[in-house]
Design a protein that fits this description.
With 183 residues, this protein is an all-alpha fold. It contains eight helices and no strands.
């Protein structure tokens, strides 16, 4: 525990060597742990990399009440379980849509009409987006890719992907707000 306190103090002071030591000590075991939960090595690596990124970025605000090891494993467990829950929801939705589940669509004719209008509006708005922005949006929202994956595939920075997604969502939000004000 004293060693943890010393390492945390060094990291909070910006000591990159202390952080690197912590990273290399825990990176592989945490990846194996996350892979055991998610069943996907690539996702596990992304979870651990994101954890360490946030750990370094938010180093001044860190509040570790247990050992660093417990903190890291707990954070990885939570992220891995959250990923699994998200995948479960996506899979159930996909199965319901593929099965033609009527519960996903409104049964009232008026609601069906509004649903169809909204669907048309969204598709129309997406078609107006610049090609790169649309591609990023589709990769993230329809293919379930993470920003880091998209950045790697398209040879862009993660910040660029984030900015493009923000602009795409703003465009959709604006069109939907205009639609809801006229309905």
């Amino acid at each position: 525990m004293l060693n943890d306190l010393f390492v945390l103090t060094k990291i909070k002071e910006g000591d990159i060597k202390a952080f690197e030591g912590l990273f290399w000590l825990y990176y592989s075991p945490l990846c194996l742990y996350a892979a055991g939960i998610t069943g996907n090595g690539d996702v596990a690596e992304e979870i651990v990399q994101e954890l360490f990124y946030v750990f370094w970025k938010e180093k001044e605000k860190l509040q570790v009440f247990r050992s660093v090891r417990s903190y890291l494993y707990g954070a990885v467990r939570n992220q891995a379980l959250q990923y699994c829950e998200h995948q479960d929801v996506r899979n159930r939705y996909r199965e319901a849509v593929l099965a033609g589940d009527k519960d996903n669509r409104p049964s009232d004719p008026q609601d069906q009409l509004e649903y169809k209008e909204l669907e048309t509006l969204i598709n129309s708005t997406l078609r107006k987006l610049p090609e790169r922005r649309l591609r990023i949006f589709r990769m993230h929202r329809f293919e379930g890719k993470k920003y880091t994956e998209i950045a790697s595939i398209l040879s862009l920075s993660v910040k660029t992907v984030e900015a493009e997604m923000t602009k795409a969502l703003q465009a959709l939000r604006k069109e939907i707000e205009n639609y809801t004000q006229t309905v």
